Amino acid sequence: MTNPKTIIEIRDGKKVFGNFTALTDINLSIRQGEILTLLGPSGCGKTTLMRLIAGFETLTSGTVSIDGSDCAGTPPERRPVNMVFQRYALFPHLDVFENVAFGLKVKGMSKAEVKERVNRMLHIVQLDNFANRYIDEISGGQSQRVALARALVNGPKVLLLDEPLAALDLKIRQHMLAEMKRVHTETGATFVYVTHDQDEAMILSDRVVLMEKGRIVQIDRPEDMYARPKSLFAAKFLGETNLFDATVSAVNGIGTTAVTPAGIPFLGAETADRHVSERITVSIRPESLSFQGGETAAQSAEGTVEDVVFIGSRSFYTVRLDDQSPVRVQVQRNGRLALPSIGDRTRVYWDSANIVMLPHT
Amino acid sequence: MLLRIIVWAILAFLLAPLLIIVLFSFHASPALSFPFAGFSLRWYEELFGNAQLASAVIKSMTIAFLTALVTLLLGATASLAWLRFGHAGRGMIEALTVTPIALPGLFVGVSLLVLFAQSGTQLSTATIVIAHVVIAIPILIVAMKARLALFDPSLEEAARDLGASQMQTFARVTLPLIAPTLIASSILAFAVSFDEFVVTSFVAGTETTLPMYIWSMMRRTVTPLVNAISTLALFFSIAILVASWVIGQARRRSAIAGRLEQLEPLP
Fold first, then answer.
1. Do B157 and A92 count as a contact with CB atoms less than 8 A apart?
2. Is A56:B157 a contact under the CB 8 Å cutoff?
3. Considering CB atoms only, which of B154, B163, B267 is closest to A85?
4. Helix orientation angle between B210-220 and B51-84, rounded to the nearest 10 degrees
5. Residue (of A47, A79, A59) closest to A12 by Cα position
6. Cβ atoms within 10 A of the Cβ of B8, count?
7. At residue B38, what are phi and psi to the nearest 5 degrees?
């Protein structure tokens, strides 16, 4: 998998509805076998992008090619992709078996082969005993699996999933995430997964495509996007973070120094083309802050503990720094370390490696 | 208490004439007044021996069946258009198709008669069917649109996505899902046609439908025969409406059930 093949390629994609630009400057290569997530808030264009691949929408300009061939003008029924709809869109007049068999039957496959393939797929999604149930006789989680099986049985080159877990409650959602990873491994299909849920995106994806207002703002592995967001939007959308407005005071071989209006200095490791007196935003994740200094956590600021929230193994502290800005500090519970209480004066430490400097907006 | 009395009084006012007709259809004497002189089936016997009446019944049945069939075909196409169109299109379909409900039967009858006369169309069973379709279509559309509003368009997209052509999608998904609604609605059209009188009287020419036959009998004298016919027509209409209702309720496998289920997923 060092040089995986590109299965879907979108070049300079633009989609306009009336006077609303839903997508613009879309350039995306989807690799064979990966789980790619289209992540973003509602209205960012992620569902439109998926429907373009499925063939339910057509680009205003630009190209979509699947497996090397341009598919402008190819209707959805002739594209080698299948979709899992947000509310599953299972056929209520057919039972589970017939729902899964639908795609194979319209292609005119022989009865015996349909039966064999459908049963094999029902086995993969663990619904062997539900073949004769009607759609109103199965649960939400089971409906989800039927939808998955109905799409995958056709052997699509790409499986498109439109917020497939949105209709399920939290517990089943986590179970289905694991299930989906397992099915992905077993079938080896390429998954394109649309969600607005950053946790789903991080758990599931090989790569995340972050979208905002019809544009792709960043494409990265989830861990890279979390650690190295390229914009304020990316930093805020994925996980929680502390943000400081600052002005660059020095740039040299070691890194960049930026100072907040109240005088707190941040020394970041990055040396990318920053220039002195540039206004930037500094982002530090709560788990990158601590109450213990050391060789790596050499920078610090003083403040007062304002609030503490315990969440099992972790605690979230809100510390109001002396310049009045509140910061969130996440601490792993560890019996050996003394932790401050509400009202205590304390010092908050961080490491230059965890500082992300973002363009100011 | 007063409210209850009023309710019962209204119900009595509405239903008493029906009950009296049913009761006197079994009356042993031709008198249409109390005291009741005992039960008999003589009027029904007389009915079944009446050739004119039999032909009027057959005529009405034929017309109602044809009306239901034509309305079904037109209704199916109208409902497809309904599913395809957006909000504005639906408004237009509604404005065009539902308006005739508000028009007086007299006006519809005269208009159709003028149309047939000007186009040189011979008044016949066909013209009656045309008139009945005009009357039944808006009723059908009103009955269907509430159901169709619940049709989930993503089911059609799912079918296309799975490789079905537009025709296959219609045959395998759309039609089976809207069929109960269509059939229930066309039974309603049958019922509307079966007892239509006002418009029919304009466009019937020399044809005689059941309501027209009853009316012509009544013109001469009110015979107990009319009670028997009316009683049969009453039960026939009730049977049709019940059938329509039962089919409408048998929607366990229909789009609506699926949609409701999807709106409230089970844990």
1. no
2. yes
3. B154
4. 140
5. A59
6. 10
7. 100, 160
Rounded CA-CA distance A201/A165 in Å is: 12
Predicted pLDDT of residue B160: 94
Complex-level ipTM beyond the 0.85 threshold: no
Please determine, for residue A47, whether its predicted confidence score (pLDDT) is greater than 60: yes
CA distances from B261 to A130, A134, A135, A249, B266 (A): 17, 11, 8, 61, 8
Least confident of A101-105, A190-194, B129-133, B250-254: B250-254
The CATH code that applies to domain B51-263 is 1.10.3720.10
Q: Which of A49-53, A317-321, B241-245 has the lowest mean pLDDT?
A: B241-245
What DSSP designation does A265 have?
A: E
Residue A84 banded pLDDT, cuts 50, 70, 90: very high
Domain boundaries along the sequence of chain A: 6-235, 240-359
Q: Do domains A6-235 and A240-359 have the same CATH topology?
A: no
Overall pTM surpassing 0.90 (yes/no): no
Residues 116-155 of A with CB under 8 A from B: 134-136, 138-140, 143, 150-151, 154
Pick the CATH number of A6-235 from 3.40.50.720, 3.40.50.300, 3.40.50.2000, 3.40.50.10350: 3.40.50.300
Q: Which of A76, A89, A138 sits opposite B154 (nearest CB)?
A: A89
The residue that leads in pLDDT, B66 or B222, is: B66
B17: pLDDT confidence band, cut at 50, 70 and 90?
A: confident
- CB < 8 Å to A158, chain B: none
CA gap A255, A267 in Å, rounded = 7
Residues in chain B closer than 8 A to A159 (CB atoms)? none
Report how far residue A227's alpha carbon sits from residue B211's, in angstroms, rounded to the nearest whole number: 83
What CATH architecture does domain A240-359 belong to? Beta Barrel (2.40)
Asked if A182 and A25 count as a contact pair (C-beta separation under 8 A), the reply is no
